[in-house]
Design goal:
Layout (H helix, E strand, L loop, with lengths): L10 E5 L10 H7 L4 H20 L9 E2 L5 E2 L4 E8 L2 E8 L3 E10 L7 H5 L2 H13 L5 H20 L8 E6 L4 E6 L1 H4 L8 E9 L2 E9 L9 H4 L5 E3 L2
Antiparallel strand pairs: 1-5, 2-3, 4-5, 6-10, 7-8, 8-9, 9-10, 9-11
The structure holds coenzyme A.
């Protein structure tokens, strides 16, 4: 699913079950040694996906992918990437920083958010629009899609800015027909951050009982996508002031 959302220069690997026999490198193992089994499983398969994606870019699989202080995966120099895992799905994507400045992906079960969560994560206009989408475009849990888009925004935002971003700091607008969404970062989110992105555009997909969202920000001066159709795809990228 994930490769449908991203440009050709982004390498990806996804799985729908935890493959047997997959192991962590010793330095990675140390990060989850005391974790519960479910966390160990998602972390292990997430790292497996990351190593598989990195191998597609030509990187060796024997270098550990550790985690930063805020939980972000620490990629090899000159690599940007993102990892997601939820029940029934794990995925990782990577790209060369010369081509992609930042990338964020998120997968969620295509199920309604628990009671009260939409109100907690959505701005009033997002909540109203989500309720409208649920009526007008049934068959997809648009509340969960909104949540996923916000998580993808954060995973894209953090490696660029190294700063937190609250749920109320970004307004998401989902296009239910063309598979895209936009995110506008509100003034309080960018305050005091030099060259902070003012927004992103991303893509979404629903299927296999999942909603998946992704954002890839092309590097300034990066080489254009080889697929000419995608070069005209307004869903890619970042908005600056
Ligand atoms: C960090 C967070 C985005 C993870 O999303 P999630 O839906 O809970 O979980 P996922 O399985 O999809 O993603 C987990 C992966 O995200 C990655 N991640 C964690 N922190 C990250 C960060 N600061 N920056 C980038 N990626 C991060 C990690 O790779 C992690 O997997 P790992 O620990 O196995 O390496 C989420 O828990 C969170 O803290 N959200 C609050 C911030 C936010 O979303 N703001 C909204 C802005 S509009």
């Amino acid at each position: 699913m994930i490769e449908q959302l991203l440009a050709a220069e982004v390498a990806s690997h996804e799985v729908f079950t935890d493959p047997p026999g997959v192991t962590l490198l010793p330095e990675e193992e140390a990060l989850v040694r005391d974790s519960v089994e479910s966390r160990r499983r998602e972390f292990t398969t997430g790292r497996h996906c990351a190593h598989m994606a990195l191998a597609r870019l030509g990187f060796p699989r024997d270098r550990p992918i550790l985690s930063g202080k805020r939980g972000e995966p620490l990629w090899p120099g000159q690599v940007r990437g993102s990892i997601t895992h939820c029940r029934g799905y794990r995925a990782a994507v990577v790209a060369r920083s010369a081509e992609i400045a930042s990338v964020g992906i998120d997968a969620e079960p295509d199920q309604p958010l628990p009671e009260g969560v939409l109100e907690a994560v959505a701005l009033p206009q997002e909540e109203a629009r989500t309720k409208e989408l649920l009526v007008r475009f049934p068959g997809v849990c648009w509340d969960r899609m909104l949540f996923s888009a916000k998580e993808s925004v954060y995973k894209t935002w953090f490696p660029i800015t190294r700063r937190p971003l609250e749920f109320e700091d970004a307004v998401i607008e989902i296009d239910p027909v063309d598979g895209t969404f936009s995110a506008r970062i509100l003034p309080q989110g960018v305050r005091g951050i030099h060259n902070a992105p003012r927004g992103f555009t991303g893509r979404w997909i629903a299927g296999n009982g999942l909603v998946v969202t992704a954002i890839a920000v092309p590097a300034v001066g990066g080489s254009p996508d080889e697929n000419p159709d995608r070069n005209h795809d307004s869903s890619r990228g970042v908005h600056t002031a």
